[in-house]
Amino acid sequence: xxxxxxxxxxxxxxKVEEFVKSQVPxxxxxxxxxxxGGYGTNPEMEIEFHNFCHDFVKKLGQKGWMSLGWPEKYGxxxxxxxQAIVNDVLSYYRMPSGGIAAxxxxxxxxxxxxxxMKQEWLPKIALGEAGFWLAYSEPNAGSDxxxxxxxxxxxxxDFIVNGQKIWSSGAHVTRYGWMLAKTDPKARKxxxxxxxxxxxxxxxITIRPIINIAGKHSFNEVYFDDVRVPKKNLVGExxxxxxxxxxxxxxxxxxxxxxxxxRVLDELVHYARTTVSHGQPLAKNPEVRRKLAxxxxxxxxxxxxxxxSVWMLDQGQVPELEASGLKxxxxxxxxxxAGLAIDILGMYGQLDQxxxxxxxxxRVCLGYLDSISGPIGAGTSEVQRNIIATRGLGxxxx
Amino acid sequence: xxxxxxxxxxxxxxxARDFLKKECPKxxxxxxxxxxxxxxxxxxxxxxxxxxMGLIVPEEYGGSEFSFIDLIxxxxxxxxxxxxxxxxxxxxLGALPIMAAGSADQKAAYLPGIAGGEAIWTLxxxxxxxxYDASGISLRAVPEGDEYLLSGTKLFVPDAHLxxxxxxxxxxxxxxxxxxxxxxxxxxxQAPGLSLTPLKTLVRDRQFELLFxxxxxxxxxxxxxxxxxxxxxxxxxxxAAVAKCAEMLGGSQxxxxxxxxxxxxxxxxxxxxGSFQAIQHHLANMWMGIFAAGHLTYKAAWKISQGxxxxxxxxxxxxxAGEAYRQITILGHQIFxxxxxxxxxxxxxxxxxxxxxxxxxGHSGFQLEQTAQGLGL
Lengths: 398, 377
Description:
The complex is a heterodimer.
Chain A: H1 7-23, H2 28-31, H3 50-62, H4 80-92, H5 99-112, H6 115-126, E1 132-135, E2 151-155, E3 158-165, E4 176-182, E5 193-199, E6 205-211, E7 217-230, E8 234-235, H7 241-252, H8 258-274, E9 276-277, E10 280-281, H9 286-314, H10 320-345, H11 363-370, H12 381-392
Parallel strand pairs in A: 1-4
Antiparallel strand pairs in A: 2-3, 3-7, 4-5, 5-8, 6-7, 9-10
Helix pairs in contact in A: 1-4, 4-8, 5-6, 5-7, 8-9, 8-10, 9-10, 10-11, 10-12
Chain B: H1 7-23, H2 26-34, H3 41-49, H4 68-81, H5 87-101, H6 104-115, E1 121-124, E2 140-144, E3 147-158, E4 165-171, E5 182-188, E6 194-199, E7 207-218, E8 222-223, H7 230-265, E9 267-268, E10 271-272, H8 277-305, H9 311-336, H10 347-359, H11 364-375
Parallel strand pairs in B: 1-4
Antiparallel strand pairs in B: 2-3, 3-7, 4-5, 5-8, 6-7, 9-10
């Protein structure tokens, strides 16, 4: 066993840190309220930061730092560990990472995509030139993805897509929809859909913003009205969409923003040490000490899930149990941390972004709201526990 | 990074699992609760034949010189199966401090006896205020000629009735800083002035109140340096905490395995209870607790094996493993329902140990405070 990084990996981390630190805008931490484990405060979703994020992601792409886990054949370095180091550093500084394209679509195409698809898409994704959003959920299909109704009907060289997607994070700032749609409605549920890439510059697409409870526009409803999608945009085999989505979900569960947890813990410890209340630093308050210590332990546990899952991928293993545990752990941790931060900040915890006297520019207040999304999105905590019990421990479904 | 056991470690683990299942079945565990000594010399001998007592003792003293993390693997299996007796006391509380702080003479005098399974040891540390920090030690050691006279009370001393030697923490000098002025002694358990009273415990192990009435100890019996005993004690506490974490981890796994098995077999409402989500979620939460405790325990153990500072890791592991084991036995009991609430069933053997394990060497609350200090709060 070995719980440490190699010297080479440590040097790589230093290199990444040096670069990222040089790119962080001076007032970034005052503007970005990104809360660890939440899906609704990611700066990459905010229109205000769109140009900056887009340019920065391209710089990452030029360094090859978006595709480190991919096989060498496709320009990668076969190292999910190195990719995870990059993501860990990026998230510590609240910087964009290229999200779904590099983390989910690219790796999925590597595994199931045709050669033509790989040649068309992988270079663009690796360079940060193709942004994706996940087009899975619908109003009637959240946990029950099998109940989707959006159809992709074959018509010559194209599919014609009709339907609606919801909770479409980033659909307003990225071009390509990574969509699960019904291609064989009469077949059994899990053989009835396919994964296709939809170019949202196509006619027939309407995006309606949905404002989340943190007041941010991070997700949307998207309507598809006779949208033509070329058949070459089919990812993997026809009608095998559910399996491909399951594969993609594995990668999604690693898209974690690990560094942000370490960052917020550091910020809360610093806050406790430097804020005086009742004549002594908050750090001397027994409740604060106990709660911060407990969070520090949970962050260490989370990092255990994270590095183990990444290591398993590099060993060629499928971290199914571990990835569910990881997702469950970090999203509930994000919510717990937000609650703890509210406790530590006391009355100041309710001060919103841009309020006078708001600590961390309201990040805790908004984090308390955004942290609700973590245990719900990308497979609810309840679903993750079902997966651990059924697929992991072998219990039967009802 | 590498999160897998080596082939050797996998073999050690499997051997330990099979051996304990065969040689220390639950019938023996229950029997030993009732006997006078709580110790099976036959089981002890068989473990000695496997070289377990000397697993990490250096070869020159008759051991196998494996590393601390290998010992942790063994403790995990002991926690899984439950293995009563003075193994923990002898190896963790006896051999490890001698290896860490003993002079060459002391190592040569004592380690072979431990490695060969001939000697039983224990540690007398906690006092009536039940604490694990330096201020909790007030038993006095007064110098007199070539000796020290020890007077005071030690509590919760495991296996004192079996031990040939007792490692004892005492205060030799007073001062403003409690961590200074402590000295660790090796005491002959037969020394005059030492009296034992058994304490009846939750786990039916054998813990004792020890009264020291001017017990004479030679100066050569000092382990480490006079007045500089705290680092020796802290080192024992860190390693003992991690070893206890491993036992608790093993116990947690045993509870999960039993509960999964039962959930598949027990039917109510015409279906296995494991098909109900409430049960599934309990089991998932148990699995998560085990993952957490396992990661922290093995990380701390690895750091100790590498000679890296591990105080913070040990504190975090102990806080989490204790809390997890307690939650896991509670959930296990929920899954077993009425039948688990009987003496006949094995569930309570683990539930008792979840409390005892959390409490010893500093319970979760204590460890959280240690962790807070480590964070710089």
